[in-house]
Structures are given as C-alpha cells and as structure tokens.
Amino acid sequence: MRALALRARDVHDMSAVSWTWVPRSQNAHADRLLNDVLDGKPAGQGSESLAEERTRRPLLRPAALGEPTTLVLLRHGETPLTVQRRFSGRGGQDAGLTDAGRRQVERAAAMIERRAGADRPTAVVASPLLRTQESARIVADRVGLDVETLDDLAEMSFGDWDGLTFGEARKRDERFFDAWLSDPTIAPPGGESLVDLAGRVARARDQLVERFESQTVLLVSHAMPVKSVVVSALGAPVSSVHQVDVAPASLSEVAYFSDGRPSLRGLGLR
C-alpha cells in the first residue's frame, strides 16, 4: 500500500484531490478494484465493472418502494440559554421560549402548514421539556393536531455542565471536555454519553417509523437528538454530531423507505 501511495503521489498533484468519507457497505465496487490491484490483476478484471453491475441489477427507485415514513425534525425556538450559547440539557434549567423564539417557531409552523398531501404531518410528537412543548403547541394549533409527548426525544443530559458555556465547561475541566468531544462513550460529569443519547433517540425513531407507516410525523426536539437522527441516516459515526449544526426552529427531514434505507431530504431549513 505504501508503494502504491508513493506512485500515486509521483503521478498526481495530491493537493488537487478532495476527500470524503463513504461507509464501506456503500463502496463495495472500490473494494473489488483494490483487491484486483493487490492480486496483480488489471483493475476490474475478474469482477463486474460498475456499469455492468448496474445493467445486471437496476437501481431500485424510491417510487418502487411505496410511500416512505417521513420524520420532519423541528428544533425548538430560541430560549435565554440559546442566546448565551449555554449547555441546556434534560436535567438543567427548563427554560421557555423568548419572544424571538416564538416568532421563529411561527415561521416554521407556516412552512409546515403549507405542506400538502402525504407531506403534511398526521401527528406531532415532542420532547417533554418546556421549550419543546411550547414549540410543538404553536405548530400543532396551526395544523389542527394534538401534541404527543415522548421522553426519549428529550435533550442530552449535560450533567455538571448544564448552564455553562462551552468555554466555561472547557476551562473547568479541559482534559475531560476534550475527551468528551472525541469519544462518544464518555459522558459529562453526572451526564449522558453520546452513545446513550443515540440509543434512546434511535428507540424513539424506530417506534415512530413503525407506528406511522407511510405517514409524515413532526418531531419537536432539541439540537443533539435532531443531529443524532441526521448522522444515523447518513451512516456516519455517532461523534459526527459535533460537525452538524441545526439552528433554533430549523427543520430537517429524513424519509425511511420499506427497504430500511433512510434518505436525508433536508437539513436546518428555515
């Protein structure tokens, strides 16, 4: 492999190359090409080319899978802690919306109200915390639905860091804070790890996808649960939530088809 890398470096200007992460399960053709090279065969010899494989096995289009179950993910509107960029978890101060936060959610509610047919929500499900309950009621009143509460949609527990800014939490416990950012199994002192958060959010997601088959459901939740659903849909590592940003009262959307494959249709829309 080192020899191949050196040859590639000599032939190509690597500064012009961009890199992206692709789950191995979605990159089987590249695996076959690499194995051919390592076995001393011309690339692609002894296995179907990508074009041949697609001819033999036509791509399955979403239309062939029927109507998906769609989760529309709404992060709650702005709170006083949001403005100050402070940790605000499930065990911290249960702050309500600011006036600006209510206006933000009203705009999101107007976007949802304009949805028609299968894209229109048939249910509104929210985290039990005050800011999400307020946000959910604003939207539910607009579209004529009740609000159902689901505990697993609550924000991550940040333990002793609740109420602190990122800077304050890092200053208080720098090595532990940095470890938390890099290791999803590490929880803030007295709090919850990203792995634990992802587990309960996935439980809520699976429950709703099963209950509301081929329907659209509005989930009103928080930054970390919304990002957890998104990175799971992309097949990205749990820790990737730190590389995703969703603004207050923004909308994201994931469709789940009958073959189990999710499709991210929108992220952080306002």
Strand order of the largest sheet: 3-2-4-1-5-6
Structural class: alpha/beta
Number of helices, where a helix is a run of at least 4 consecutive DSSP H or I residues: 10
Oligomeric nature of the chains: single chain
Q: Count every beta strand, where a strand is a DSSP E run of 2 or more residues.
A: 6
What is the averaged pLDDT score? 84
- Distance from N terminus to C terminus (CA atoms, Å) equals 46 Å
Unreliable runs:
11-19, 42-61
- Radius of gyration from the alpha-carbon trace, in angstroms: 22 Å
Q: What form results from the Cα inertia axes?
A: globular
Q: What fraction, in percent, of the residue positions are helical?
A: 25-40%
H/E element sequence: HHHEHHEHEHHHEHEE
Sheet with the most strands, sense and barrel status? 6 strands, mixed
The percentage of residues in β strands lies in: 5-15%
